[in-house]
Amino acid sequence: MPRNEIGEYDAMYGGEDGKPPPWEIGQAQPALAAVVEAGVEGQRVLDAGCGSGELSILLASKGHQVTAFDFSAVAIEQARAKAAARGVAVDFHVADALALPEEFGPFDVVFDSGLLHSLLRPEHPTYVATLRRVCDPGASLHLLSMSDEAEFDHGLAKEQLEQLFADGFTDVRIEPTTVHAGTTGSFTMPGWLLSATR
Ligand SMILES: C[S@@+](CC[C@H](N)C(=O)[O-])C[C@H]1O[C@@H](n2cnc3c(N)ncnc32)[C@H](O)[C@@H]1O
């Protein structure tokens, strides 16, 4: 089954295997949480492929106006419940990154915590074109991806990221970082933190 099958993600979020999906660490990925804690400029923020919403909720708790989407309806249901329980407002949507409705955006800041690396390689350019579209000129992008040095086949090489973001983005910085997994986040993998300006 291709990795981008919606039902597969719904089953994982639904705990079909008797455990949560491996990326559910009970908090935002530390590399992106550090970006949020350092402060991002701009009010209108998008969390693309938000999963069960930890990063979206962190952003909203800092006072940003957060829109978030995921194509898994089960993940969005969990995200809405979590945000309500924590008393923050996030505009959550069920939507496909490869067919994002025109009404999304523009945003001042866009986050991607593990969505790009979840897509199939031929889908990458379509998704990056969508990121270009939803970013206002001058917007910042912060993207966390698994690296090709991780033990899974969908990690990206630094050169692939450079190529994907060569068009329409400036000041592209790609730094090595760590992607966390497992219920306590204690399983770690090499990753990339990409920051760029539209
Ligand atoms: C590795 S998980 C990361 C989830 C969340 N951002 C996090 O950091 O915990 C990737 C997410 O992307 C979502 N996803 C995969 N393909 C998608 C697509 N085409 N459109 C929207 N969401 C997608 C999955 O449902 C999943 O929630």
What is the fold's blueprint, element by element?
Blueprint: H1 6-13, H2 30-38, E1 44-48, H3 54-61, E2 65-70, H4 73-86, E3 91-94, E4 107-113, H5 124-134, E5 135-146, H6 158-164, E6 170-181, E7 187-197
Parallel strand pairs: 1-2, 1-4, 2-3, 4-5
Antiparallel strand pairs: 5-7, 6-7
Termini Cα gap: 34 Å
Q: Indicate the radius of gyration in whole angstroms.
A: 15 Å
Proportion in helices: 25-40%
Order of helices and strands: HHEHEHEEHEHEE
Supply the CATH superfamily name.
Vaccinia Virus protein VP39
Ligand kinds? S-adenosylmethionine
Indicate the CATH topology. Rossmann fold
> Strand sequence of the main sheet, in spatial order?
3-2-1-4-5-7-6
Name of the CATH architecture: 3-Layer(aba) Sandwich
- The low-confidence parts are none
| Number of beta-strand segments | 7
Give the overall average pLDDT: 95
For this structure, what is the CATH class? Alpha Beta
Describe this structure in words.
The protein has 198 residues and is α/β, with parallel strands linked by helices. The chain has one domain (6-197): 3-Layer(aba) Sandwich (Rossmann fold), CATH 3.40.50.150. Helices cover 29% and strands 29% of the residues. It has a 7-stranded mixed beta sheet. Pfam families: Methyltransf_25. Residues 45-138 form the Methyltransferase domain. InterPro entries: Methyltransf_25 (IPR041698), SAM-dependent_MTases_sf (IPR029063). Its EC number is 2.1.-.-.
Provide a compact summary of the structure.
The protein has 198 residues and is an alpha/beta fold. 29% of the residues lie in helices and 29% in strands. The chain has a seven-stranded mixed beta sheet with strand order 3-2-1-4-5-7-6.
